[in-house]
Amino acid sequence: MEEAFLHYIWKFQLFRQSELKTTAGEKLIVLKAGIHNLDSGPDFFNGQIRLAETRWAGNIEIHLRASDWMRHLHQNDQAYDKVILHVVWENDQDILRKNGELIPTLELNGLVKRQLVENYQQLQNASSKVPCANQINSVPKRVINQQLDRMLVSRLERKSAQIGRLLKQYQNDWEQCLYHLLCKYFGFNLNSVPMELLAVNLPFSKLRKHLHNLTELESLLYGQAGFLEEVHKDAYPKMLQKEFNYLKQKFGLVPIQKHLWKYSKLRPAGFPSIRISQLANLLHSQESMFQKLIEIDSLKAIEKMFQAQASAYWDMHYNFNKQADRARIKSLGKNSIHLLLINVIAPLYFTYGQEIGKQSFKDRAVELLEEIPAEKNHITRLWNKLGVKALQASDTQAMIELKKQHCDLKKCINCSIGNQILNPK
Prior knowledge:
The protein is α/β, with parallel strands linked by helices. It has helices at 3-11, 68-71, 78-81, 114-124, 141-169, 174-185, 192-201, 204-207, 214-224, 235-251, 272-285, 289-295, 299-305, 334-356, 359-371, 378-385, 393-407, 416-422; strands spanning 28-32, 35-36, 44-51, 54-65, 85-90, 105-107, 317-319, 322-323.
């Protein structure tokens, strides 16, 4: 059993409350459970109880065993000396205040329904990727939908907090922040780390003045990515190399290591050599991109903005100096565009709404996700097999958040679906 489960039991008062007594035999009535404290200090603030004929207000501490009080060194912390009630599953030791007075203790073992404990243990011991996989069909659809709605907002808030820190790092430069995020997500998972490293090693402040010149732009991106450090035979990379050598000296640039880039399990069209050119062409065609994005609000208009393709050299290449068998224009596909809108633009809208205090941009983030078709990945397929169907990206983003932030961590007590299974009405 986890202590968090006892927090859940106490918070929702899921124990037999008639004729409660402390371990010392005093009559106990719980008037208010208190406010759950997720920071340091006692577990619940401002609780209210009646002991015998006296009403007490103050903090409540919860442990699996009473002796955990000593193991956690609470006896040395003044914040715990005035706790009004110690709630435990097993009272294996009397706990005293500094003045020698016994701290009132409630032992929950024997007061909680056996079925509730068994349900919790079943979820915690489940070997399936979703702990409630065997029981989720018994949960009403409205409960599942409500949880998914909360997960979508939670995911946007969590991503917004990350973007907020990035924005602070860049002194509120939204264009720089957008550039950083685009670089990261142009890596499409496998190359997200080197792409983000590229954004850090090639700040937008150095790139901004070269957006109008595609050759200079590509030379900076390929050069800093480590692609121009070797000998090339084709005229195109030679030209980029010559340009980069000049800019490298001018800005004092140090390229990242080329070996960081990954190619295994990638289709040739997704090679980093292609993605970098697509990114360069997108940046070149959309100067002041962030400003344009906040001025438009339709999915089609944003999709049109992101219709970038690699430079003409790549029509016959996937790597430098190696000609392909046939020509093919390397355009950014619709699925790739949608992934960028899901992971960059929607969270950016939400963050912008947070920063300037406008709900309309936060609503726009949700509406954008509701317009984009559902993603297809191992997490969404897992939920679909369990009967939880996704129709749009807002559904799949919520499913991903639920899986990663609750199911993977077995935080069933923090989930409405888990609550329904733990304690069905």
